[in-house]
From TrEMBL:
The lineage of its organism: Bacteria, Pseudomonadati, Pseudomonadota, Betaproteobacteria, Burkholderiales. Its EC number is 1.1.1.100. It comes from Caldimonas aquatica. Belongs to the short-chain dehydrogenases/reductases (SDR) family. The keyword Glycoprotein does not apply. This is 3-oxoacyl-ACP reductase.
Length: 450
């Protein structure tokens, strides 16, 4: 649905009026478009010349033809920068945090609209000395705060890279430094070494179609976020199998036909759902996206038992059952990917959604519990937790609550289904083997829950 405030805020009259009234002025976000540049402006990489991550970052970006400026070589772009990237992995004590100030303070003002701040550090839990652990943990506060200070659609994020995972950063840089991550802000993610050492971090032969030759199953694909995920995974080269309830079959067929995919009308709570998914996929599910979800909102005191049961069943129990059975049947091959849709309601809690928030928090538990189990087989499992995304689900929210939901984030607007889909595409990329057990919020840095 259209966001009239966003449109008005970017009209000449709206810009003047909102500035005069001191009201929020959300900027139109630059999203990935075919043929548009991945790097709309210079990328400045900073950090010590001997930093562990600087060299792999520069090499990766140079291979993509990014307009790269290296602080170590004393180079600086003349105009505004699209991205400011800092290798902070070498900070091992509180005094070293000065590097953040020295790098960002003089440059933030010239960051372009929809620009990127990306800090890369070491996971604090891998630090040997307490001083290094606290210094690396401090990066979180700095990045989340920069995210709240940035304007004009710019974002800040932090990636902790485990020792040994330096060469596994390609897909993560491709996501966080380009318009694919338009609505991802204030996030902290970890890239580790794949637990079984399988060659999942290999860069695909066709960079534009990294999922070529892979089969991706997307539940709830008839509309909203699920349809967007199906489209983006198709764009990335996958054969898409869309699943949705019988009642949505017409829409499901339309989406799947457009993508040369296959439709599977199926209620995911059916006892034989996993078996039917595996059969439709020819016994091999390279990518499983558990997107289907429902809400049955009521304050707990007014909630009926069936409203509780159905939400837990669709949003959580079915995801677990299908994952477990696909695994047991050997239908998730090495290099496989599972992504589960959670929600910021499952992180922050939400009045009127005790059932939904329980299920969505359970999804995070599911991902964290299964990550080591799947990881030992070369499969990853991660969660995406959307904030306010413009879909039929959120169009059903009463006006005042909907408007508050849209504005209560650093970007001052709701996200689009494609923003969630791009996050899923990052997680299922063949180069994302080191990203396992993570929860990525796609929420524009929502004020709720962190
Ligand atoms: N829209 C948001 O702002 C938002 C925010 C946080 C999380 N999410 C989550 O993202 C996912 C997609 O949300 P959406 O906004 O696109 O919802 P939506 O209601 O627009 O679409 C959900 C789809 O899932 C299908 N579905 C429901 N039950 C099913 C079942 N038993 N079997 C098969 N298919 C079933 C529906 O028919 C529908 O096509 C959900 O898991 C939702 O909880 C959405």
């Amino acid at each position: 649905m259209t966001d009239r405030y966003l449109d008005f805020a970017n009209s000449p009259l709206g810009q003047r009026l909102l500035a005069a009234l001191g009201l929020p002025q959300p900027a139109p976000l630059r999203r990935w478009q075919p043929k548009s540049s991945e790097f709309p402006g210079p990328v400045v990489v900073g950090g010590p010349p001997d930093g562990a991550l600087g060299e792999p970052i520069r090499r990766t970006l140079a291979a993509w033809g990014a307009p790269l400026f290296s602080e170590a070589q004393g180079a600086a772009p003349s105009g505004s920068a699209h991205a400011l990237v800092l290798d902070a992995s070498g900070i091992v004590a509180a005094e070293g945090l000065r590097l953040l100030f020295d790098f960002f303070q003089p440059r933030l003002r010239s960051l372009a609209a929809c620009g990127r701040v990306l800090v890369l550090g070491r996971p604090p839990e891998t630090a040997v000395a307490p001083s290094a652990a606290l210094a690396q943990r401090a990066l979180e506060g700095a990045v989340r705060s920069m995210g709240k200070e940035l304007r004009r659609g710019a974002t800040a994020n932090l990636v902790y890279v485990a020792p040994g995972a330096e060469e596994a950063l390609g897909s993560t840089l491709r996501f966080f430094l380009t318009p694919r991550s338009a609505y991802v802000a204030g996030q902290v993610v970890r890239v580790g070494v794949p637990s079984n050492g399988l060659p999942g971090a290999a860069w695909p032969a066709d960079a534009a179609r990294p999922l070529a030759g892979r089969t991706a199953v997307v539940t709830g694909a008839a509309r909203g976020i699920g349809a967007a995920i199906a489209r983006v995974l198709h764009r990335e080269g996958a054969l898409v199998i869309g699943v949705d309830v019988q009642a949505a079959e017409v829409d499901l067929q339309r989406v799947c036909n457009d993508l040369d995919g296959r439709a599977l009308p199926l209620d995911i709570t059916a006892p034989d759902a996993a078996q039917r998914i595996a059969e439709r996929a020819g016994g091999r599910v390279d990518v499983m996206v558990h997107n289907a979800g429902i809400t049955r909102d009521k304050r707990l005191v007014n909630m009926r038992e069936d409203q509780w049961q159905s939400v837990i069943e669709v949003n959580l129990a079915a995801q677990e059952r299908i994952t477990e059975r696909l695994l047991a049947a050997g239908a998730l091959p090495p290099g496989g990917r599972v992504v589960c849709l959670s929600s910021i309601a499952g992180i922050a809690g939400n009045g009127g959604q005790v059932n939904y928030a329980a299920a969505k928090a359970g999804v995070i538990g599911l991902v964290q519990a299964y990550a080591p189990i799947l990881g030992s087989r070369g499969v990853t499992i991660n969660a995406v937790a959307p904030g306010f995304i413009e879909t039929q689900m959120t169009a059903a929210i009463p006006f005042a609550i909907r408007e508050a939901g849209r504005r209560m984030n650093a970007l001052g607007q709701g996200g689009l289904p494609v923003d969630v889909a791009e996050a899923v595409a990052w997680l299922v990329h063949p180069g994302s083997a080191g990203v396992n057990g993570q929860v990525l919020r796609v929420c524009g840095q929502s004020w709720l829950g962190a």
